[in-house]
Amino acid sequence: MRKALFIGINDYAHISGLSGCCNDAMAMASVLKTNANGDPNFKNVLLTSAEDYLSRQKLEDQIRELFSGDCNVALLYFAGHGSFDADTDEGMLIAQDYRNAKDGIRITDILNWADKATRIKNKVIILDCCESGSAGEVRALRSESSMVGEGMTILTACKKAEPALEGAQHGVFTGLLLQALHGGAANILGKITPGSLYSFVDNALGPWEQRPVFKTNVSQFISLREVSPLIPKDILRKLPDWFVEAESVFPLDPSYEPTEKAFAPKHGEIFAQLQKCNRHSLIEPVDAEHMYYAALNSTGCRLTALGAYYRELALKGHF
C-alpha cells in the first residue's frame, strides 16, 4: 500500500498569506493519485486552507497518522510558509494559527515520527517552503551532518537560508516537480524516482536561483510514478540477443533499409526496433552519422554505455 498526505496553505491568521500553495497541493495529489495509464498509485489525503482551517494541532495529528500503521510508502508533501529559527536551530513548517516560533511544527519532530514508523518501508518528505533545507541536519552538532533515518528521503525546495519562490500558478519548485512527474524525469522504463525528480529540478534551476536539497538513506530507489516506457520492455529484452557481449557490433547491410532493393521485411522489423533504441541513446551507428548510412555502408551498430546498462538489466531479468 502507498499513502500520501498533501498540505497546501495560502491563508494565515496572523502573518502574510501566499497565493499558489493550495494549487500546488491539489496538483501534486492529482498527479500522484494514479500512474499515467490510470492504474492506482497513492491513496491520498488532501488538506488545503481553501477547505479547512489547518491549525498546528490538526496538521500534527494528520502527519502522525500518515507515519503510522503498515505500508510500503508514506509520502508527505507540504506547500506553505516555512521558517528557520536560529535561536533553537530548528526548521519549522508554519500552520494557519502561527504567531511566533513556538507555534511552528518542528521538522525534526516530523523526521522522528517518520523514523519511528518501522512498519513503513519508505518515507518520502517533500517540502516546498522557505528555509526548508535544514531538514535532516543534526541540531546538536550545528553542522551539515545528517539525521536521515533508514528508508527516508527528503526533497526540499531550497537551502536553509533561502526563500522558496512562487510562480504564476505554482511554486517554482512544485512547478518543476509536476513537469518531472508527468514524464520529464522518467527513465527508459518510464519510472520516476526521488533521485530523478531531484536531478530534473536541480538541472532546471540555475546557480543564482533557489537550490533544491536532496537527502536520502535508502538501499534502493522506489518509483514514485510510472509513465509509458520510452522503449517497450519486449524490445529491451532483445538487447542481449542482438549484442552477445556489451562490446559486440550488430552487423547491418542494405537489406535492413526499406528504401533499398535488397530490403528484407524481417530485417526491416529489427531495424525499426534498433532505430527506436538509437533515438533514446541506447545504440549508436558504427562509422556513420546515422543508422541509415550504417545500413547502406554495411557497418553496424553498437551499444552505448546506457545501452550496456539496460542490456545488463535485461540479462538479470529486471523487466
TrEMBL record:
<feature type="domain" description="Peptidase C14 caspase">
    <location>
        <begin position="1"/>
        <end position="205"/>
    </location>
</feature>
<dbReference type="InterPro" id="IPR011600">
    <property type="entry name" value="Pept_C14_caspase"/>
</dbReference>
<dbReference type="InterPro" id="IPR052039">
    <property type="entry name" value="Caspase-related_regulators"/>
</dbReference>
<keyword id="KW-0378">Hydrolase</keyword>
<dbReference type="InterPro" id="IPR029030">
    <property type="entry name" value="Caspase-like_dom_sf"/>
</dbReference>
<protein>
    <submittedName>
        <fullName>Caspase family protein</fullName>
        <ecNumber>3.4.22.-</ecNumber>
    </submittedName>
</protein>
<dbReference type="GO" id="GO:0016787">
    <property type="term" value="F:hydrolase activity"/>
</dbReference>
<dbReference type="Pfam" id="PF00656">
    <property type="entry name" value="Peptidase_C14"/>
</dbReference>
